[in-house]
Amino acid sequence: MRILLTGGCGFIGSAVVRHLIGATDHSVLNVDCMTYAASPETVQSAASSDRYQFAEVNITDGPALAKLFDSFRPDAVMHLAAESHVDRSIDGPGIFIQTNVVGTYTLLEAARTYWQTLDEVARKAFRFHHISTDEVFGALEPSDPPFTETTPYDPRSPYSASKASSDHLVRAWYHTYGLPTFVTNTTNNYGIWHFPEKLIPLVTINAIEGKELPVYGKGENIRDWLFVEDHAEALVKAVEIGQPGETYAIGARQPRTNLEVVRTICQILDELSPDPKGPRERLIRFVPDRPGHDFKYEIDPTHAETALGWKAKHNFESGIRRTVQWYLDNRSWWESIRARRYTGERLGQTTTTTSGTDAK
Questions:
Q1: Is 134 an active-site residue?
Q2: CATH annotation of 2-195+226-253+293-314
Q3: Is 114 labeled as catalytic in the residue annotation?
Q4: What pTM, to 2 d.p., does this model score?
């Protein structure tokens, strides 16, 4: 397949690019506008392949997208480009509406115009795969069952509302125009190359450096954690065999409280790189909760596992250990990001996040 993939220099997108080039015969056009959370290093291992191309284009630029469709002639679209950091959406929701809603609309229209030029066989085989989050479903109470594909939407933050809007657009283009779209919703991702503003990389980096570990509220909020490489494999399975009009909820059955996550990171670091000043749990600081902080996200992935023939390979313990070791081994990457992009407010003081999937 020839796959036009948006957001391929972001966290999840880059994992998909690496999987496509490293484990399949598919060709990829990575379309990314290189915002603050994009890193060209994340796809360096794929860049030398003759099956990889890159275009620095914003998904809100319709004419530029049209040129890419005409020149690359994709068999499928994988749409991961998005603004995804919940805290940032609270501080400035406008860019989330522009990228996640307007950008998705613009991409849908570019795809539809291109799709209408295809012959009957190619039109039938074409797929538009939209990657979304479990946050569109709102929040679960402690005793509630996990989200499924049929859970009603109930977004609570500007980020999740913008993603819910984009999901609805994707489904509308299927029902109204016949464009063969489908949606995947996923839980919190973690792993290598994760941008240093999200919970796990933030805590890991701060703990490595002996800085405070900010935790919202009492740290009781629960998230279902999925190793990013497992998610990438599921997404590729989906674009290969996913059916138009379908929804696939992708998860790992690995729920943990935020405090459990932070303590696990501390324990692994204490083992791998002991701090002479003592166990790193001493660095945990509880900070005021953020507005509209959803209590629990968890997905029941039964349908996706069955339909896609996929199941997460990593449990949380193995995945988080590999992740922490990676941050120990790759200080130059995250130190460079922090030095050129941050003043300290996001990465060392009181900001953490529990946002779900992030395509950027």
A1: yes
A2: 3.40.50.720
A3: no
A4: 0.92
